[in-house]
Amino acid sequence: MWKGTICQSALVVPGPPYPFGVSLPGMDSLWRRWWRPHTLGQVTEATRDQDGQDQWWKSAVVYQIYPRSFADSNGDGIGDLPGITSRLDHLSALGVDVIWLSPVYPSPQDDNGYDISDYQGIDPTFGTLADFDELLDQVHARGMKLVMDLVVNHTSDEHPWFVESRSSSDNPKRDWYWWRGPREGMAAGDPGAEPTNWGSFFSGPTWELDEATGQYYLHLFSRKQPDLNWENPQVREAVYAMMRWWLDRGVDGFRMDVINMISKDTALPDGHQGPGAHHGDGSPHFLCGPRIHEFLQEMHAAVFAGRDGALLTVGEMPGVTVDEARLFTDPARREVDMVFQFEHVGLDQGDSKWDVRPLDLRDLKASLGRWQAGLAETGWNSLYWNNHDQPRIVSRFGDDGEHRVASATMLGTVLHLHRGTPYVYQGEELGMTNAPFASIEDFRDIESVNHYRAWVDPGHQSAEEVLAALRVMSRDNARTPMQWDDSPHAGFTTGEPWIAVNPNHATVNAAAAAADEGSVFHHYRRLIELRHKEPAVAHGDFHMLLPHDERVYAFTRRLEDVELLVLGNFSGEEAPADVPDAAGWAGSELLLGNLSDVPDAGPIVLRPWEARVYRRTS
Ligand code: NOJ
After folding, report:
1. How confident is residue 394, by pLDDT bands cut at 50, 70 and 90?
2. In this structure, what is the dihedral angle of CA atoms 274, 277, 282, 283, given to the nearest 10 degrees?
3. How far apart are CA 536 and CA 59, in angstroms?
4. Could you give the percent of the chain with pLDDT greater than 70?
5. Per the count of CB atoms within 10 A, which of 88, 115, 189, 191 is most buried?
């Protein structure tokens, strides 16, 4: 029976589906929870919290690079570090402050680098440590920062720690991972003999039998991603030493992969298994477990405390609630600066991420509004539409056809004007769209391919039914190559790309966008500039308006005597914005809009996918 902390008990609050794809038929419950500061790096009174800590990241914008798909310098069809270095001027022109690099460490690439076999190296596919140092120097030379992906819930099964651990039951590293014998009364290998009934995020059970020793090891993700046992202090110290090594090398922080999974209930109880489900839901036993706050505070003390320099930590936390997030991001607690939560990217899903539903804008306002209110006084939000695990936002909540540019710029405006640190995922600044995948052979992602096999092979769904969901929700939508120009492989590679380039690169590409002041790129550039120049964007309070309006997203931001009004039309029709004091706002300064010829008087009626930001002082 679970005796949990606030973190665990909060999981009973109905949440969004889990973002990854456990997707076996009948499985239900898991899814139910689920400037430059123009003085970047300078500490000013405005960026310090009550304890005197520098909070420079409150006015910063982060750009995520998925190295495999960004830029290929050597023609092997896979992006690499020299490729990234060669494209840094694109990011300088956009004006971002921080780059988050998805994993570039040595890896068998079972999960595109989120399965790491050496934490202190660079995969030859991506280059060398010398290439990395050159990239870091070039990033710093442009006044930007570089944050690494930290994947320490699990390693690759090819990491020397795991190779040792599996070598014998009495190996000194045996306890660095979760090893257990078969279920009582059953023999290893018997169907259902796994130590718990938990289902893996990438289909199948979370346990893999090691024939040689007759024990199973835990893997919440693929069988090539064994979970580290954070109960073992040697594991924690080895991780902290590795983190210090990267900081000493000059990196500026970490994005921490599924970091709220590192503390598990050591009793490893079975999870609830719904009728017809093949596996149980283990998440109450490993999300925000009993020691999660202790581990993050220990990490902070061992790795970050006392370091000079403006660093950034962001924890990816599936299933995290507002109350938990406030604890994780309360600066006085010294855990992380901000977390990635998943509520808003689960609102268009039913029982699983593959069960796609239309978005009701009122749900989006209720969700994001609750996060804004919940972290208003203590803690901090991260703001994102996209990352390497999410389909493209313009195809998801916007219109990637006739209104692609208007809807992409409206979505960017609404997100970036919230209180929090915005994250831009590569290609989002171009309005890149989902890809026209024709068949399962076009997909590369382990989650997508395993889901297809788990449903189509046994005949639970037809190939077309599964493909229809994959086309909308697959992570591969985010992973098609960056579209630099209109040349055959979009300027991404001179070779054969590892995943097909979206054919719309003929028109949707960085070169065309740079030459067009009306492009998504220039709008994102203006949004980032606005955050840097207008303190109310970073530091103002947040007040949601029109919560029941089905088309118009509206809110105000206030800092002292400055007030901003942000409006976005989430529809392809004209929509009046019946905001309080509309007449007063109509006469105020239009700071930013995404469509030209905005009338400067009269009632505010937004055109399809229009966004406006007004400013007034009182
Ligand atoms: C979260 C990462 O964002 C995702 O891409 C990865 O598959 C899982 N964690 C496992 O590392």
Report:
1. very high
2. -70
3. 10
4. 91
5. 115
Residues 317, 314: Cα–Cα separation, whole Å = 9
Active site residue 529: no
Q: How remote is the CA of residue 114 from the centroid of ligand 1, in Å? A: 6
**For 234, what's the count of Cα atoms within 13 Å in the CB-facing half-sphere?**
7
Q: Ligand 1: distance of its center to the CA of 257 in Å?
A: 6
* Spatial distance between the Cα atoms of 24 and 455, rounded to a whole number of angstroms: 7
Q: Which atom of ligand 1 is nearest to the CA of 114?
A: 11
89 is catalytic: no
Q: Is 257 in the pocket of ligand 1 (CB under 6 A)?
A: yes
Contact 428, 434 (CB under 8 A): no
pLDDT at 585: 86
Specify the pLDDT at position 18: 43
Q: 114 CB under 6 A from ligand 1? A: yes
pLDDT of residue 276: 80
Nearest CA to ligand 1 atom 5: 389
Write down the pTM of the prediction: 0.94
Split at pLDDT 50, 70, 90, the class of 277 is confident
Give, for ligand 1, the residue of 220, 221, 260, 353 to mutate: max count of ligand atoms closer than 8 Å to Cβ: 221
